[in-house]
Structure prediction request, 60 residues.
Amino acid sequence: MGRRKLSEKNIRKLTRSGGGKSIGLTLPIEMMRSLKWKEKQLVRVTRVKGGVVIRDYRGK
Prediction:
């Protein structure tokens, strides 16, 4: 499997996990680094018109 073209680096596939009850998404490592997010960090997923927003979870 080759590398993606530079113009397609942010195109990702949704994958099934957890026995088919969950859907996962990988994020580009450059994006994770620029946001200073770490593995297993809590994030808040909010549905908006036309998509979703993923933000750092900052508690109450």
In short: The first strand starts at residue 14 and ends at 17.
